[in-house]
Structure formats: C-alpha cells, structure tokens
Amino acid sequence: MKHPTRWVFILSFLLSLQASLSYSQEKTSHTSPDNKSTIILGYKEGSKPPYIGNKNDNSGAYRELFSKAAEMIGLSLEIVRLPKKRVYHHLKEGDIDFYPSSGFSEKRSQFLYWLDNGFLSKQALVSDITDFEIKDFEKAKGTLLVPLGGSSAEYAKGAPQVSIQKMGKLPIDKAIQALKLGRGNFYVYDIDILDYYLKRNRIKQFSDIGLRLHPNAIEKEYSSLKAAFSINSKHFKQQQNSRFDKNSALGFNNQKTSPHKGSVAYQFQQALKHLQESGYTQTVYQKYFK
Fold first, then answer.
1. How far apart are CA 63 and CA 273, in angstroms?
2. Which of 44, 46, 98, 206 could make a disulfide contact with 211, Cβ separation 3.0–4.6 Å?
3. Diameter of the chain by CA atoms?
C-alpha cells in the first residue's frame, strides 16, 4: 500500500463521523417537538430490580411511581436507556430531565438538583448473630464482609471489636451465602434491597435461613432516596436557593440552586411529595419489595 497514513486518516474520519451522527440522532430523539408534553427519565442499561428491568424492560417501581407523578402535572413519562456516562452527558446538556435515584456529587451539582423521590431506605445489618438484636454496630464483635473498594468498611472504624474481611465483588446473594458458610458475621446493605432479597427468594424473614436483620444497627432513621433533575432541562427554571449556606459543605440539604415555583421541575417535586404523604409511594414499595 503506497499511502498507509492516508487510509488511517480516512478510517479515523469515518469513525468520528459515525460517532457524531450517533450523538446527533440521540440528541434529536430526546428534544423533538413531540416530546414537549413528556418528562424524560434517563437510566443506565443495566437492571436494578425491582426498581427497573434491563434495557429492554422498563417495568418496575420507578416507572409506576414517576409515571403517576408525571400524570398528576399533565405530562407523560418517557424512559431512555443508555450507558450511564451517556445518560449523565445528556443530563448535563438538558436533553434528559432526571435520573431516578442518585448520590450527591459536588462536580455534578453544577448541572443537577437533587429532590426526594419518596422511596425510603437506610443502611441495615444482616448477621449470623441471631440470639439478640444489635442496636449499635460500634459495640458489635465479629467480622464484617466488605466488597473490594466498598464504603461499608467505614462503619468498622468506630467499632474496635469488628475486623474486616474483603471479598472482591459482593452482591447480596454472594454475601448471604458467605454469612451462612461462616466466612464472616456481618454484612451492611440497603434495607430496601434486603427486603427484595426476601421477596424474590420467597423467604418470610432472615431467621428462616439462620440469619437476622438488625435494622437499627447502622442507621436509626429512614431517609428518602434522591432523584437528580437536570438544571439545564427545559422543565427546570432555576433560582438561588434562599437556604443555601456558603459556609457549609454542599450536599442534598445545602444546594446552591432550587427550582422556581412556576417550573415543571417544582411541580414534579411537589407531586412526588404528595404521593409520599398520601401513602401511594409506600403502596408501590409494598407491591414490589414485600
């Protein structure tokens, strides 16, 4: 071949063009005039049952709750599934309106506003210690199973009699099996997912498999999970948050901006609040998790 560099350049150009066209098609599908009466939920392609299925199955608790909230304010819910990085890119651009449940990120606070979605959860403890309830993990004694790189190891720092056993990847099924095999004594996880573990395995309570749930060992109070709404969405009209404290750290309860009362984002937030207070959200939870 006389001009190999020319072919490399042409190939690179074609690949770049393909990526550009793909992005353009993605963006157009999210911003077409037909979508003016919709509110768009973006989620990664992987599943998180029972909140949502795989990329070809949007059924679950998310769709049931958020479609009801959208209906209350005269909109319909559209669900878009993309790789997680692409979802956050479109949130930044404002092409996707919100992510259903998200942790706080100072970097992403430049383009996201967090609001209660109404689903309640907290960190809870499962253990092979079954003869008494552990109400304070700092006074516990035993071995905590921790996934490699997992944040649950932080809970052991204040518990002098608790050691750590790192386990690599540690999904809930593997962790429960490890506890039953005596490889450790404790496992910390979200209580909503622990509830769902019992339901999908048709187990009434953890004592039926020789374990015990200690619901108040890690966190005493439940708190709402947070949806992340795009500040750049056409549905978001921002205003300065009058409660923002510049001398305190940024977080869920200390955000620089908030949605204007005349915006769709504010109406959506109020609809979710109403659904939680009326008991609708808890009814959805009971349906999918219990």
1. 16
2. 206
3. 80
**In this predicted model, what pLDDT tens digit does every residue of 261-280 receive, in sequence order?**
999 999 999 999 999 999 99
Which two tokens mark 168? 């690599």
Q: Measure CA of the first residue to CA of the last residue in the chain; give whole Å.
A: 66
The pLDDT score that the predictor gives to residue 261 is 97
The angle that helices 172-180 and 191-200 make with each other, rounded to 10 degrees, is 80
232 in Cβ contact with 100 (< 8 Å) = no
pLDDT tens across 3-36, in order? 544 544 444 444 444 444 343 444 444 444 345 6
What's the fold here for domain 123-214?
D-Maltodextrin-Binding Protein; domain 2 (3.40.190)
Write down the residue that tokens 């669900």 correspond to: 79
Q: Can you name the CATH fold of 35-120+224-289?
A: D-Maltodextrin-Binding Protein; domain 2 (3.40.190)
3-class DSSP state of 110: helix
Q: Sheet containing 112-121: which strands, arranged edge to edge?
A: 76-81, 38-43, 98-99, 223-230, 112-121
Is 268 buried (19+), middle (13-18) or exposed (0-12) by CB count in 10 A?
buried
In whole angstroms, what is the distance from residue 210 CA to residue 204 CA? 12
Mean pLDDT of 232-250: 97
Q: Where are the domains of the chain?
A: 35-120+224-289, 123-214
Mean pLDDT over 185-192 rounds to 98
Both tokens of 216, joined, read 């108040």
Q: The whole model's pTM is what?
A: 0.86
The β-bridge relationship of strands 142-146 and 162-166 is: parallel
- Kindly report, residue by residue over 57-96, the tens digit of the pLDDT: 999 999 999 999 999 999 999 999 999 999 999 999 999 9
**Residue 235: helix, strand or coil by DSSP?**
coil
CA gap 114, 102 in Å, rounded: 8
